[in-house]
Every structure is written in structure tokens, then in C-alpha cells.
Task: structure prediction
Amino acid sequence: MYSDAIRYIGVDDVDIDLFEGQYEVPSGMSYNSYVILDDKIAVMDTVDLRKVNDYLANLKAALEDRKPDYLIVHHVEPDHASSLQRFLDVYPDVTLVGNAKTFQMLENYFHLGSTARLVVKEGEKLELGHHTLTFIMAPMVHWPEVMMSYESEEHLLFSADAFGKFGARGMDEPWDDEARRYYLNIVGKYGPQVQAVLKKAAALDIRTILPLHGPDLDETIPHVLDLYQKWSTYTPEIENGVLIAYASLHGNTAGAAERLADILDTKTDGDILLADLARVDPAEALSCAFQYRRVVFAASTYNAGVMPFMDDFLHHLKAKNWQNHVVGLIENGSWAPMAGKVMKAELEGVKNVTVVDPVVSIRGALKESDLPALEALADAILNA
Ligand SMILES: Cc1cc2nc3c(=O)[nH]c(=O)nc-3n(C[C@H](O)[C@H](O)[C@H](O)COP(=O)(O)O)c2cc1C
Ligand SMILES: [Fe+2]
Ligand SMILES: [Fe+2]
Result:
């Protein structure tokens, strides 16, 4: 971990309904911030304005009657920077530290006026006394101005949103699932940019990662880096199981999806996961679709297209750069089934996706005569 010179002054937000206006966060969210107390005092980011009063109280307590010299802005997104004006109201003599883009983007939200600023570039250092920060640019992880800083005395990486998770710090819950859901939905599109930063980080001796959300990481760093390596290269974690994502108007397609799950269960030890796209958290479904190599999409035909929940889902996957999967398709329709064709078209242009045969086409209810096709799909998806 770290010495008493480093103080956590972040806040938990457990009354937020949706993070970034769209993500369910059943265990809340944390906005992390830290103070480094040395000859000079640096504050690492602020927090969401929703919690500014708690934050300023934490900061005041940590400062022990001293005043901060630097406020380092790793990320301008409002969950970290929207308290900046309130911070400046209390500590107007602080020097803001950011890169050229940081200051451009801060001006979108604030009038900085004559506030002192220090513009840093890749590799530049800021000496605080015993502690020294080195700045590492992380453009498009997941905003253009994002940067990290490495503190070489205690071997700390202040990693901005990277390595963050959904969930308040006070909630002691497993890291992987909520970190995956956070990463893939929020940063997932930017795998190459994350790769670039991971390469820079590999050259550093990092003992603790201090992200802007979720717990600090130490012993689990190898595990976490391994997951980030997979996620940022679009390498699915689960090879044997199958995710069956379905959208069903009247339940017949849902029944076919369940039947396929039963068949798959007899053929593999891998996990078979069913996701009703109308009812599960879309962010969780997306996260699972990245996690599983093998994914079956099953949908009703709807107005000569595909049921909107499936349409949205495929659109989202594509937008997040989803790739490297084996796909099976099931369609249902009463007079002119189109869902299979539409789903196939939506998957066009997705990198390294193999759609296996057969595309199972059901008319209304699942019948005995449909079972051989479902069996064949099960074999094809497992053996591809
Ligand atoms: C609003 C609506 C629009 C539909 N549009 C089509 C269509 O364009 N072509 C078609 O073959 N079936 C269409 N259907 C029929 C369904 O695809 C069919 O009932 C199918 O069996 C539904 O499967 P489900 O029980 O899983 O929803 C439509 C059904 C509804 C309710
Ligand atoms: Fe962010
Ligand atoms: Fe964030």
C-alpha cells in the first residue's frame, strides 16, 4: 500500500441512480481523490459535484491546516472535475496541473481566469519533496486529455479511470465483474489506446494502482493486468461456454433459446448463460458478450426487421468494437421471417466474427421438426 503521506479523500455515492446517465450501479459509485503531503502538497483530482461538500471536508481534514500547492487534473470528465470551481473558491492559490488538452477542455466548463497553471507533457516530472510524480499521457482512455501519474518514491500509479470499477469503495465486492462491466462499456471501444498505455506501464515498478473509481489495487495487480490485456485486445475470457442473448415478443423465441441451452448443457461442461435482452441490464449483457467467445443471438422478426432490443444490442456491440467471436443465429417469424438476415447484415463489418450454419428459422412455436436444426447449431457453435 502506501505511507501516511498519501491520504484518501474520495467519496462514495450510493444515491446515484445511473452513472454517466445510463449505467445501473446497484452498489453505488466511488469518486476517488488523494492528497500527497510532502514539502509541497498535491491533490489528485476532485470528485463529482454531487458530493462536493463531503469531499471538501475530507480534504480539509487531510490537509491538517496546510494549503494545497497543486491540483492535478488527470481527467476532465465531470465525475472528477466538476468540483473544481468549488475547490478553487476555497484554495484560490493552488496551481492547476494538466496537459494542453486538459486546459482547453476545462475552459468548456469553467472560467479559470488568472488561476496558476502548470502545463505538463509526457515524461515530465513534478518534485514534491520526497515524492516525485512523472506524467504519462493516456489519450482516449477514454477522453482525449486523460493522463496518469507515477509516483516513484512509493511506486504508485494514479491511473485515472483505468482499473476503475462500478461500486462504492465501502462495498466490499469482488473486483472482476464490476470492473469488466465498467471497462467494456466505458472504455471498451478504445482497446488500442489502452494497449499503448499498458506498454508504458510495463516499464514501471508499480506496487499500488490508485484508480479514480473503486479500490486501490496491490496484490491483485498481475491478475488485473492480465484481464486488461485481454479486454484491450478483445480476447474473450471464456472459450467453452455459450452466451445465448435473445429478444422475444411472445416467448416462443425465448423457449427456443432455453431449449438450445438445454441441448448445449448435454454437450459441454462450459457455462451456458441466457440473457433476455428486454429484461437484463444492457451494460451487463454487453459485458457478457465480450466475455464469451461463443454467442448465439435469437430474435423475433418485428415489422420486417428484428426486435428493437436485439437491434440495439448488436448496434452497441459494434460501436464498442466487439470482435473475435463465433456466432450462432436463431430467428422467428410468422409470415416472412427476416430476423436472421437482418442480424447477419448488422454483424457485417465486425472483425473476425464467424457466423456458423445453420441459421435456425422458427415459425411461431418451436416444434419437434425444429430440433435437428437446434442440435446442429449446438454442435456448430461448440466446434467452431
Ligand atoms: C408488432 C409485431 C410485428 C411483427 N412483424 C413480423 C414480420 O414483419 N414478419 C414476420 O414474419 N413476423 C412478424 N411478427 C410475428 C412474430 O415474429 C412471430 O409471432 C414470432 O413467432 C414471434 O416469436 P416470439 O413468440 O418469440 O415473439 C410480428 C409480431 C409482432 C407482435
Ligand atoms: Fe471518465
Ligand atoms: Fe470516471
The chain has twelve helices and 22 strands.
